[in-house]
Amino acid sequence: MKVAALGYVRLQVRDLEEWRKFGEEVLGFAAATADDGSVRLKMDAAPFRYLIEQGDADRFTASGWECRSEADYERFLIVLDSAGALVGEGGAPEAEARRTARVAFATDPSGNAFELCWSRAADSPFTSPIAGLEFITDPMGLGHVVLPAPEFAATVAFYQDLLGFRLSDDLTLPPPAAGAPEQRLNFLHADNPRHHSLGLYNYPAPNGIVHIMAEANSLDSVGLCLDRVKAAELPVVASLGRHFNDSMVSFYFLAPGGIPMEFGYDGQQYDWTNFEPTQGAVADLWGHEYNFPS
Ligand SMILES: [Fe+2]
User: Fold this and answer.
1) Residue 252 C-alpha to ligand 1 middle, in angstroms?
2) How many independent structural domains does the chain possess?
């Protein structure tokens, strides 16, 4: 029993209108404001992929994981409950707000809130406000999230043992500063061909997220987004480069409120039969000169 895909993410931001404008004009998503005032960003036929709510700080609030069936959803609830990780199941209003039939709330051992849902109906077709831009999504979900996991071993085990994620790549990088522990990243796949739907990083992240990744349909779409990011004067925190593990060509930048994002193309897709997880000590084939705020 495995989680199917990353269905949606939730953010809280101080300036909803700024995020709405950014979503449309920089990312090329389609934005809508719901009756409750939240902004929904759509990047494919799913009802929305980013649920953005008003808050007093800019932060990532939850990953929304989709289950393959209602039976899986119910079994996950039992497993999470017995592990003491289940916060509870949402009612009809919470499910409706996510355009899903059922939703439940839980927390991982590093304190990352997440949600499980079943099922999300496809909605209207997606047309980007940016001509020619499309995103690589279903059946692989919206992309990936990399979450802070200071309780690293327990958090990796949690996603593997309870939710059925499997290891794709175990990456060790030098310490970020002299005397600090080495950096460790585990990249986990869900039940779909994307190399990783979830990354876990052994350091904290001030706004609750290491980065969110969106994958576009061409290299030109990545270059054009880089131009839009620069025109919007958003900080680019990693130059264009290609990752070793998923072969993604991407760059990283800070969205409004300092939310780190990766925008990429050309991520490799996998048939997981007979796959052996890789171990690495180098993140990139070329490029990706990192300049994240410490
Ligand atoms: Fe990434």
Assistant:
1) 9
2) 2
